[in-house]
Amino acid sequence: MARMRQRTRTRLAGRSPQLREVPPMAYEITDNPLRGVEAKQSTNGHYGIFDQGAQVWSWQPDGTEPVIWMSAKSWFAEGQPIRGGVPICFPWFGPGRNGDLYPMHGFARLQNWHMSDVKDTLDRDGRFIVEYTLNESMTGDQAQWPYPYKASFQAKFTPEYLGLELRVENVGTEEIVFDEALHTYLHVGDVSRVSISGLEGATYLDKVSGAEAEVQSGDLTITAETDRVYASTGEVVIHDPALGRDLIVSKSGSAQTVVWNPWVDKAAAMPDFGDDEWHQMLCVEAANALDEPVVLRPGEVHCLKQRITLA
Ligand SMILES: O=P(O)(O)OC[C@H]1O[C@@H](O)[C@H](O)[C@@H](O)[C@@H]1O
Predict the structure, then answer these.
(1) Ligand 1 mean position to 259 CA, how many Å?
(2) Which of 94, 281, 296, 309 lies in disulfide reach of 69, CB 3.0 to 4.6 Å?
(3) 3-class secondary structure for 96-112?
(4) 120: left (phi over 0), alpha (psi -120 to 50) or beta
(5) Does residue 269 register a pLDDT over 90?
């Protein structure tokens, strides 16, 4: 794989210091602010993923507002969680089923994954695919989850949708049990005006009140701190009147949809989250956690997919 493509402007060798424009869609391996790969498009289009956590942090099709949300207060520091984008939670979600695991959401989001492939057809169709791998030899001694595994992640950036695919294979000799989630932060115009359809009738755990078997009635609206784990395998649509668009979030291989917005007090309590940033974000996550972990016998593979489409 070429480690570096040209930046958007390149100095021509042996000529006067004139700058030549290269084709408008180009990608580069970047260290800004963490190592990863970024692609820029002709107007304001932007795709970005960090090696740390194989974490997508930008999907903005050309001519649109960003679809993936990233906090201006995120730390962007090696070994620290990145606030925004699509954290990959693995092999546990939150503090785990019994609430005693650390770091939150598992060790995979704090590790540098190996970038194994980049497929660039940006000039032809605006598509860009980045693949990463992770396994137990890269994650070292993990006393809380000491099992052999192979994980791979593919992020497919296209002008129409962002496709995310996490595969985990049990390469050991005993059964493994793990949680996982694609913890997608979406950018919305005003979270208090959005409505989310597709969850009607689904039972949910309300992590704010502690109620365990609530049932969603009608569309979900966000009017306070919201942290819910819905038993739901289907698609949801986020209607966003402030930005005048809908986001369709579809998925497969996932038993639960998690919806999270910290609202005023929790936002203020998080050091890597701006006090007012909760207005413009909403997490809609594809998960298998709590009472629905993934169980793999030796040699088995599980695939979790999420797709965000701009409508
Ligand atoms: O602050 P973190 O570790 O990134 O987690 C953010 C949130 O992630 C959500 O998925 C959880 O349901 C919330 O409980 C949690 O607060």
Answers:
(1) 10
(2) 281
(3) CCCCCCCCCCCCHHHCE
(4) beta
(5) yes
Single-letter amino acid, residue 266: K
Beta bridge pairs of residue 177: 295
Task: Give the pLDDT of residue 4.
Answer: 38
Residue 145 is encoded by which pair of tokens?
A: 């989850």
This prediction has a pTM of 0.92
The two tokens of residue 173 are 């000799």
With vertex at residue 264, the alpha carbon angle to CA 185 and CA 70, rounded to the nearest 5 degrees, is: 25
pLDDT digits (tens, 9 = 90+) for 121-132: 998 999 999 999
Q: Where are the domains of the chain?
A: 18-310
Q: Tell me, what amino acid is at 79?
A: G
- Residues recognised as catalytic: 183, 285
What is the Cα–Cα distance from 115 to 133, expressed in whole angstroms? 7
Measured from the Cβ of residue 226, the count of other Cβ atoms closer than 10 Å reads 20
CATH architecture type of domain 18-310: Distorted Sandwich (2.70)
- Both structure tokens of 144: 């809380």
| Atom from ligand 1 closest to the CA of residue 103 | 3
Nearest atom in ligand 1 to 105's CA: 3
| Beta carbons within 10 angstroms of residue 70's beta carbon | 21
